[in-house]
Amino acid sequence: MNDKNNLNEIGVISNIKLPDLDPPANTVGVIGWVRTNLFSGPLNTILTLAALALLVLVIPPILNWTLFDAVWSGGSDACRENPNAACWTFASSWWEFFLYGFYDKSERWRIDLVLWALYVGIAFIVVDDETRAQRPTSSVLAFIIAIMTGVFVSLLIRHGAPTMWMFAGGLLTVGLILWAWGLPNGRSRIGMILLFGFPVFAYFLLGGGVLGLSEVPTSDWGGFSLTLVIAITGIVASLPLGILLALGRRSEMPVLRLLSTLFIEFWRGVPLITVLFMASFMLPLFMPKGVNFDQLIRALIGVSLFSSAYMAEVVRGGLQAIPKGQYEGAQSLGLSYWKMMGLVIMPQALKIVIPGIVSTFIGLFKDTTLVLIIGLLDFLNSVQTATTNPEWSIKSVPYTGYVFVAIVFWVHCFGMAKYSHNLEQKLHTGHKR
Amino acid sequence: MAKVTASAPPKQSFSFSDQKTRGQIYQFITIALLIWFVWWIIDNTATNMRDQNIEFGFKFLNTQAGFGIIQSLIDYSEESSYGRVFFVGLLNTLVVAFIGCLLATILGFIVGVGRLSSNWVVKKISTIYVETLRNIPLLLQIFFWYHAVLKPLASPRDAHKLGDELWISLTNNGFLIPKPVPESGFGIVFIAFLLGIVATILLSRWAKKRQMETGQTFPVIWTSLALIIGVPFLVYLVMGGPLTMQPGEMGKFRPVNGLGLNIIPELMALLFALVAYTAAFIAEIVRAGIQAVSHGQTEAAHALGLRQGPTLRLVIIPQALRVIIPPLTSQYLNLTKNSSLATAIAYPDLVATFAGTVLNQTGKAVEIIMMTMAVYLTISLITSIFMNWYNAKAALVER
């Protein structure tokens, strides 16, 4: 108090606030950003220059090859004239083979219908209520669905789908999803339908033999639709199997624990190729006479067992992260084992391990390419087969084919990874550090 | 309301409502089902094999193989046995796994640190690298390197003339470099190298002990570099350079076998793809490990007066490694298992030669697939033993 009075008496301190000076020009704006992020020291400067040199060296040729010099129209002759750039007409001439394989031409509308249901369902799951409330994403959803409907309906017409099937399938798909969408927890309901109902629907529609549909042998299946069949079967089978195995490994019964552990460690310890070899060569020996699986079923069994072991370890990680109090709390409420697991433990455990589950899915999706080693015509194999066509034996064709496959896989895998990241952020209801 | 009276604890007798009893019954049923299932499978297999006239047994391992292998580390010819093929394949697998792990670790650490760099361009390049490569199937990457990059290269016949000395040559026959041939006296250089390693270990123990006692530091890194590289190099010079580089020579169609060191394109494609793919995963592990060490650790180390170098070496890295090593080991294991994709481009690894060619020739599916799986299971078992040992050693010792 005393000091303040003294100061006032001296009166050398101005009581008018002077305007703030601007920060030095070279610490703000573009220059400041460049200085702090690119040239903050000698080492950083060298790194920046080296990296920029690398980019200058690499990016223009890539852009030229994929976009500016690429062949976008015409036939194989156009590519032969320009062998030093991407030959996208290769992809556009062969896309039906890449998508459907040798599936009967007059029956391809069945695959269209299945893909339509799949992608519309995925769109409904991905575009969620909360973001819809914040942003006008419902129109985004409508937009996505309109585009997909346009694409797939034109495909259906192109492949001469019977009108009755087109309407029935379309109405069933969209109607079922809209119905589930309107209910509380609609999205998880759609998830359940996609996970368990959709495979049955796809199985009967693709395989045929019911409702007047002609039978299409699995040896004719191929292309990207076969890749999706393998990936989705693996996902659908591995989740419940993995959960059971994880519960077994954490069980208090020593026999169950030992067996689950052995099962998990066995499949995790061997490469998928040997599993596929085993499914392909040994499975027929294991079965009694007369029981015969075709090559696709063998691959599906191998892939499912293999990925369920990985899924089990992911789920076990989640189970271990649940504090003991949750188990004890559930037990003290008088819940039985399955009720405790289903209502209290699993919802929390699965929520924690969503990133792990999705990365297992991504790994499984990438690993489906291995089935080409046991002779299935998956997406990669179909593209590879097309590149060996004599009419297309052009230098740029193998590159183009591989880049095309890479782009398709990348879009799917990256999409899954991004979605799981968003979901993780949204479900993170606990305290963030 | 009825009066509740305390009753005696229930008598220990057989009751189905007892959880323990039920558990035992479940386990008994499981064992019975398992035994039945295993017996069923063995019985089916035996019946099927009898019907197809296949005999179970490992005698075929002594039979002559009769096919060539383009890369083998041990002596192998078409007269060798199937058992020999097994070892050739196993060694080829281990070669890919070893080199692959080494290179993937180096690249992965560079990219992982790059993702945390304060330099914006470096950070973005690293991120794009990781996000691109780990979202593309490995098999596709192998095919890309093999069919699209290495196979379209010029053939040796177009690139070289008959009798050319090949010091370095990259053709669709492989990457040919001179082969180092040790002469008499090279053994001494090698012994000097081994002695250097031993001396370094002793020196670092002594230096640590002295630092604990007196606080004085000793430039261990520079001395050990001198001991491990400098001294053997001096010995090498003194011995008059007992190592010659033998170049390859162009034969009629391809470089003459045995002259020069030829890295076959299958191996190169496999290594490129495995290293690039695994490095993307290792980069993420490294990034997570470094980020797991809180910034307070750095600040505390600086507050204690440690400079940037010792802070990294003594405070950050040891803590980050504790987080990094376990997932890193499982990436090594993944790389080893993924090397079995070699079979798709016919690199002669265990799966391609043994579970591929030998299986097709002999039809001994059960034995061969069992042996192949056993190899990979052993490798994973060893890895997990190592991991448990490391975890026990590195685990935080809490009060």
Q: Identify the quaternary structure here.
A: heterodimer
Q: Please tally the β strands of chain B and state the result.
A: 7
DSSP helix count of chain B?
12
Strand order of the largest sheet of chain B: 2-3-7
On the 0-100 scale, what is the average pLDDT of chain A? 81
Output the number of helix runs of chain A.
19
Give the helices and strands of chain B as they follow along the chain.
HHHHHEEEEHHEEEHHHHH
Helical content class of chain B: 55-70%
What is the C-level CATH assignment of the domain at 223-378 in chain A? Mainly Alpha
End-to-end Cα distance of chain B, whole Å, is: 52 Å
Looking at the structure, the CATH topology of the domain at 223-378 in chain A is MetI-like fold
CATH top level assignment of the domain at 82-151 and 265-393 in chain B: Mainly Alpha
Structure characteristics:
heterodimer; A: 433 residues; mainly alpha; MetI-like fold; 19 helices; 73% helix; 0% strand; B: mainly alpha; 12 helices; 6% strand
Describe this structure in words.
The complex is a heterodimer of chains A (433) and B (399). Among the domains of chain A are: 112 residues; 156 residues, MetI-like (MetI-like fold). Chain A is 73% helix and 0% strand. Chain A contains 19 helices and no strands. Chain B is mostly helical and 399 residues long. In chain B, the strands form three sheets. Chain B has a three-stranded antiparallel beta sheet. In chain B, strands 1-6 form a two-stranded antiparallel ribbon. Chain B starts with 18 loop residues before the first helix and ends in a 5-residue tail after the last helix. Classes of the chains: A mainly alpha (433), B mainly alpha (399). Chains A and B meet through α3, α12, α13, α17 and α18 of A and α1, α3, α4, α11 and α12 of B.
SSE topology:
The complex is a heterodimer of chains A (433) and B (399).
Chain A: H1 2-10, H2 29-37, H3 42-68, H4 76-81, H5 88-100, H6 108-126, H7 129-134, H8 137-158, H9 163-182, H10 186-207, H11 223-249, H12 254-269, H13 272-286, H14 295-321, H15 324-332, H16 337-352, H17 354-367, H18 379-387, H19 396-427
Chain B: H1 19-51, H2 82-115, H3 120-133, H4 138-150, H5 156-159, E1 165-166, E2 169-171, E3 174-177, E4 179-182, H6 186-214, H7 220-238, E5 243-246, E6 248-249, E7 261-263, H8 265-292, H9 295-303, H10 308-338, H11 350-362, H12 365-394
Antiparallel strand pairs in B: 1-6, 2-3, 3-7, 4-5
Helix pairs in contact in B: 2-3, 2-8, 2-11, 3-8, 4-8, 6-7, 8-10, 9-10, 10-12, 11-12
